[in-house]
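A student in our group prepared the protein record below, which I am reviewing. Here is the record exactly as it was handed to me.
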Amino acid sequence: MRAGACEAPGCDDGHLVHPEADISTSPTARPGRRGLPLAGNYAGAVALALLALSPFLILTTSLTLFAPVLMRELDATRFELQVAAGMANAAYAFGAVASADLIQRVAARHVYISCEVGFVLSSVLALSAQTVGQFMAGVILQGLFTGMLLVAALPPLVITHGVDRIPTTAAVISLGLFGMVTLGPVVGGLVGSYNGWRLLYTSIAVLAAVGLTIGAMTFERNEPPNRRARFDWAAIPLALGTTALPFFGVAWLSRSSFSSPVFIVLVAVGLVFGALLVAGQYKKASPLMPMRPISNTLPVTGTLNAMVVGASFTTLLELVQLYLQEVAHYTPVRTGLLIAPQLLGIIISAAIFRRVVTTWGTPFLALSGIISVAIGAGILLGATTSNASPIVAVAMLFLGYGAGAGVAPGLFLAGFSVSSLQLGPTFALVELLRSEAAFLVGPVLLHLAMVQSSLQNGFHLSVLVILIFTVVCGVGLVTLWQLGGARTVAPDLDGWMSGVSTGYHSPPLLARVRKTAA
């Protein structure tokens, strides 16, 4: 092990340990290699991470297209399925924060294996459901365990295989986070047209079991960094309120209106909890999540970019599925296949990200993501029942590229702005904020479309709102970048990987304005 003085912003204990010796984020400590056939194997680590995240992410965008099947076979209502989806997404966001807290005092290997076992069991709970209540419990638990796996599985993949692997790892994470999301509509379309939803959840359970097996052979035995760390009573309850309350509030829209007290109160209180969580983490001397280090220009613009792109992409995807089924009257399988070109867009963005992640180009790639989403929204404004097929296919290509180019680079802009030892909590914070934006905006604009005089008009109105939102936010982010005086430089990955410095040395927010005022 190698220790040195802490030079990274936001490091509170005065010392850092080399990340390969920090078993809070690294499964590859030397003493744990015995008896694990895939220990230190990069391909095994990639498979471990993808199989931890992909099954649930596929389900998040597939449920809409086979919801009628569930309504028929489980005697479920649309509201109940909306609650199931919303609370599963809330559980995913909360799980990431809970895992960041738990992994301080519980070995990362134990967290990983326990969560994979939990995901398998929750998948069995869902696939064997005879009532909608049992199904809801299963999918919500799937979300919780996947969020926890995000923090347990991704940081080791990034920091324990050397600087040379980072470009490939960045591309893998981009494909893992959004590539699998793009497969959801195809899978959901097949299930919606030909039934077989129990077979889908059985396949998901099998994939998770394979991931558990690979993880057991790859994820090395370790010790937690601080067994005496206390439960964070400031962060965890606030994170629960930040996710559960507003996500249930927007689900309530499917049975009420924008003037409903339940919707207004739950969303407002949830957002207040979120503000208190962020403020508390910023002010705390030893925070669970490194809010202060990522409050500078570069990580803030990267995080906001991920939030805007995630919210716009998710909303447009839901609107397109609604339009194709309810206005164009396409079958679920045709709907899913028309959405499939977004996978090509994400593959293109992942290939570019692999080339630029170690250069000065990552901020520009993130900006291209938000521009591409705006272009996709603009194309969708021209959709009619007579031209829906080509319009949607082209728009999906731009939206897929935008999602891949906008979210994963934003995640890394934040991750490289803190010490590598804080990567897990940073991912948890960014995913919490991104999920909050993505899964709150979508249901609201979906409801806006459905309450108009015609769904055709409602679709175009909601798409226009997203287009304006994306363009305004894009201009705002460029302005924020300029006012911060951030420079486009390559990250110092050697210093970041060693744990003695951050990858980016970003100026404070509004640095130019502050300098002028002074």
User: Anything to note?
Assistant: The chain has a mean pLDDT of 88.
